[in-house]
Amino acid sequence: MRTGWALVILLTFGIFILSIPSTLGRLADMPQPDRAWFSAYNLPVQIYIYFTLFLDIITLLGFAIPGFLIFFSKTDDWMAALVSVALITFGITVTNSLGALEFTRPALGKLVLLLRGIGVASTLFVLYLFPDGHFVPKLTRILAVIWLFWLAAYAAIPATTLNLEEAHPLLRFLAYQLFSDPGMIQVMQKNMRAGSLAVVLLVWFGSGILAQNHRIRHYANPAQKQQTKWIVLGITAAFIGAVVYYGLQRLFPVLVQPGGAHLLYEFIGLSLYRAALLLVALSFAISISLYKLWDIDFIINRTLVYSLLTGLLGAGFVLEILGLQYLFSRFTEIDSTIFVVISTVVLMLLTQPLYHRIQRFIDRRFYREQVDFRQAFTSFSKQVRTIIDLPELLDVLVERT
Asked: Of 208, 198, 8, 6, which is closest to residue 123 (Cα–Cα)?
């Protein structure tokens, strides 16, 4: 399980790193109406490419961080591994970088298709199985099997365009009778394939959300209900965001045509759509922090402490070197390498005091109940050491309780 998880993660981040040059290379293929819009407002053309790449990076990290936290907290729990894979692969599946990579490097199309399949399938299975690993209701087991067969067929059958010259004479006759332009049958074939994907995703992911609601109503215990409600809320918001984002493109074709309307829709609509998707990762974070999902508070605590400690030490190291260089270069001619030695020694002496201060700040800010709870036991243990009389001890115990 751990090996499989590691391979999927390597595939995910490897594909994303390879897609960055392809995303930046889309600048040369930008349509002329888009370039004219940027020129009209005296804006650099590169801003659109950097904007989409920035959104892709934020989206991937937004899903990857909780995914890593979940997996490393429960490396022996297959359900935690499945949720981790679903979060990380779904995060890259919704980015624009994969499409750019497919367009510029068709040889990697199979790997991209495999990654998309893992992301979509694992996300759906999480909806059917979360949080206890059982299919609820039992109908979801059948739906999962049908879904896997459809996904395999979609990946195996290539998206070839029908050639009427090589088709059966009866099919050619019907095509010429039904369509004024025989080329329309090729457009219809392409739209049917894309439409079938959209319908299947809507139906199956809608069934996953309904399955989670059914689980909350009839099967989950109180703790699981609180954990699941937040996650269902986040997934539902992301689902609605996707329907609205792509639905508006279907209703108003001008939003996908090159020009000012398309660019404004991408800047505003795409940002809102990605924000809706990140609600899924946020819902897992809330479920973890408030309702002890997989009980990874210790990892979150240490992550906050050491991240803040590393950032402060790094910033202090740079500022200290710059300040010492300025002072010594202004008044002395001492070799600059000594600045590094002095800065390192000073920061080493400050590491432990700074660590303890940050730990106390994090505990007070995020874990106040646990800190007060421990403090209550500590003060009680100190108090009872001085009590000999049994009734007095019982009074103190009742008061503390």
From this structure: 208
Say what the pTM is. 0.65
Cα distance between residue 109 and residue 103, in whole Å: 9
**Residue 288: is it exposed, middle or buried by C-beta count within 10 angstroms (0-12/13-18/19+)?**
buried
> Tell me, what DSSP letter sits at residue 76?
T
Lowest mean pLDDT among 83-87, 296-300, 303-307, 319-323: 296-300
pLDDT tens per residue, range 190-247: 666 666 666 777 787 788 888 888 888 887 777 777 777 777 788 888 888 888 888 8
Long-range contacts of range 345-349, CB-CB < 8 Å, 24 or more positions apart? 346/320, 347/313, 347/316, 347/317, 347/320
Residue-wise DSSP of 95-163:
SSHHHHHHHH-GGGHHHHHHHHHHHHHHHHHHHHHTTTT--SSTHHHHHHHHHHHHHHHHHHS--PPP-
Closest among 114, 92, 119 to 17, alpha carbons compared: 92
237 in Cβ contact with 276 (< 8 Å): yes
